[in-house]
UniProtKB/TrEMBL annotation, chains A, B:
It comes from Raphanus sativus (Radish). GO terms for biological process: cell differentiation; positive regulation of transcription by RNA polymerase II; specification of floral organ identity. One of its GO terms (cellular component) is nucleus. Gene3D superfamilies: Transcription factor, MADS-box (3.40.1810.10). The gene is LOC108840230. GO terms for molecular function: DNA-binding transcription factor activity; protein dimerization activity; RNA polymerase II transcription regulatory region sequence-specific DNA binding. InterPro entries: MADS-box/MEF2_TF, MEF2-like_N, TF_Kbox, TF_MADSbox, TF_MADSbox_sf. It is found in: Nucleus. PANTHER family: SERUM RESPONSE FACTOR HOMOLOG. Keywords: Activator, Developmental protein, Differentiation, DNA-binding, Flowering, Nucleus, Transcription, Transcription regulation. Pfam families: K-box, SRF-TF. This is Floral homeotic protein PISTILLATA-like isoform X2.
DNA sequence: TTATCTATGTATAAAAC
DNA sequence: TGTTTTATACATAGATA
C-alpha cells in the first residue's frame, strides 16, 4: 500500500513496526466506529501493542460486560467460569474447616460427645480441664488486681469480696 | 467511498445496511488480523450484527480470557466482578465466622483469655465446667457399659480389658 | 511519539447477477 | 443472502519534520 505493497508478515524494523501499529490501530478503531454507526452493529475491540499499551473501543449501545455475556452464550466458550470455580472451591474448603471447628467446639462444650470413643473423650476432658485451670488462674489474677486496687483506694471494699464461683468438683481422675 | 461518498450515519435502506455490514465486517476482521501479524499486536474483536449474529476474532498468541484479564488490570474496569463479588462476600463472611469460632475455641482451651473481661471469663468458665460435667458423665457411661460387658462375658477378662481402639482424630490439646 | 506529505494499494458503494 | 464488477474514496508505507 502507499508507497509500496507490503507482505503481511511481521515488520522487522522496530521503528517501522511501531509507526505502522500506531497508524493501523487508529484505522482499525475508526472502522469499528464506522460499522457501528452505519450498520447498527455492536463492536468490541481490544488492542494491545507489543509494548503492552492498550487501546479499546466498545460500541455505545452495549457495554463490554454485556457483549461478553452474549459472546459466551453464542460461542459456548467460558470466559470466567473457571474463576468462579476456584472461588467456589475456596468456599467449600472454608466451609469444611468451619464445620470441623464447630464440631470441636461442641465437643468442648460437652455436646455431641456420644460420637466420640473413650480415648478421644478423655482427650476432650483433658483439654477442658486445662482450659478450666487457665480460666480460673486468670480469674484469680483479676481478683488479686482488684483487691490490690481496693486496698490502695480510699473507700470500702465490698466489690472486693466478690469471689469466683469456682465450684471444684472431683470426678474420678 | 466507492461509487460515491457516504456519510457516517445509519444506513436507512435495510438491504444496503446489511450488505455494507457484511463487507465492512470482513474488512474489519482482515485489518485486525493484519495488524496482529505486521506489528506483533494482540487484538480481540467481537462484532454483533443487528440481527444478533456474532463474528469474533482473537489473536492466536493470547486467548480472550487472558486479554480480558489484562484489560481489567489496565483499564481498572470490572467485567465480571459483580458476579465474583457475591462469591467474595460469601468467602469473607465465612472467614469471619471461622475466625470467631477459632477464637471461641481458644478461649475454651484457656488460650488468649487475657483479652476477656471478668464477666466473659466467668461465662467461659461456666461453659467449660458444663462441658467437663458432660464429658465425665459420658466417660462414666462408657465404663459402666464396659464393666457390665465384662461381667456378662464367660471366659477370662483379658480381652475385655481392652479399651476402645481409638482411631484418632486430633486437635484436642 | 505524532503530524504531514504523496504515491499507491485497498476497501467498498452501488449495481447487477 | 453471497459474488462480481467498477469507479471512487480511503488507508497507509515511506519519508520527513
Amino acid at each position: 500500500m502507499g508507497r509500496g505493497k507490503i507482505e503481511i508478515k511481521r515488520i522487522e524494523n522496530a521503528n517501522n513496526r511501531v509507526v505502522t501499529f500506531s497508524k493501523r490501530r487508529n484505522g482499525l478503531v475508526k472502522k469499528a466506529k464506522e460499522i457501528t454507526v452505519l450498520c447498527d452493529a455492536k463492536v468490541a475491540l481490544i488492542i494491545f501493542a507489543s509494548n503492552g499499551k492498550m487501546t479499546d473501543y466498545c460500541c455505545p449501545s452495549m457495554d463490554l460486560g454485556a457483549m461478553l455475556d452474549q459472546y459466551q452464550k453464542l460461542s459456548g466458550k467460558k470466559l470466567w467460569d473457571t474463576k468462579h470455580e476456584n472461588l467456589n472451591n475456596e468456599i467449600d474448603r472454608i466451609k469444611k474447616e468451619n464445620d470441623s471447628l464447630q464440631l470441636e467446639l461442641r465437643h468442648l462444650k460437652g455436646e455431641d460427645i456420644q460420637s466420640l470413643n473413650l480415648k478421644n473423650l478423655m482427650a476432650v476432658e483433658h483439654a477442658i480441664e486445662h482450659g478450666l485451670d487457665k480460666a480460673r488462674d486468670h480469674q484469680m489474677e483479676f481478683l488479686m488486681t482488684k483487691r490490690r486496687n481496693v486496698r490502695e483506694n480510699v473507700g470500702g471494699g465490698e466489690s472486693a469480696t466478690q469471689f469466683p464461683a469456682a465450684t471444684t468438683r472431683d470426678g474420678y481422675s
